[in-house]
Design goal:
Blueprint (H helix, E strand, L loop, with lengths): L4 H30 L4 H42 L3 H23 L5 H30 L1
Helix pairs in contact: 1-2, 3-4
């Protein structure tokens, strides 16, 4: 069930920006933590803050695109019985990312926040592989 080219490009671009800014933030945050006392530590802290803002902005675009996928792609694919396993996994993983992002932004608890962070990073690291598998399985079944 192919998507229209412009929509597919927008979806791929949003998720590529999410991946790049997520990985970039992890690296910048790690380097800022490692170089707290060095002069470059503040630069990495600033970079981490900007990457996190970009990540949040890209997530808003991705939410719009994911919402559009339901009537355009997910519901039709489900009715046709195609690519259900990886499609269900995609919806589930994206739902976990949305919920943990909400938690990272709103949880004040020192117990819940680290848990939400680790889960968000882990699922976010797996999603690109799942995304690729979903695409390849879908193209095979076409």
């Amino acid at each position: 069930m192919p998507l229209e080219p412009a929509f597919r490009i927008a979806l791929y671009a949003a998720f590529a920006v999410l991946l790049a800014t997520g990985v970039g933030w992890l690296l910048a945050d790690y380097l800022a933590d490692q170089m707290k006392d060095a002069a470059s530590g503040e630069g990495w802290q600033t970079a981490a803050a900007y990457l996190l803002m970009l990540h949040g902005g890209a997530s808003m675009a991705a939410l719009l695109l994911l919402g559009a996928l339901f009537p355009l792609h997910i519901r039709r694919g489900w009715r046709m019985g195609r690519n259900r396993a990886t499609g269900t996994a995609m919806v589930t993983f994206n739902a976990v990312l949305i919920l943990t992002a909400f938690g990272l932004y709103y949880f004040g608890s020192e117990l819940l926040r680290p848990w939400a962070s680790r889960l968000h990073i882990g699922v976010g690291a797996i999603l690109p592989v799942l995304f690729l598998v979903h695409i390849l399985v879908g193209r095979r079944s076409a």
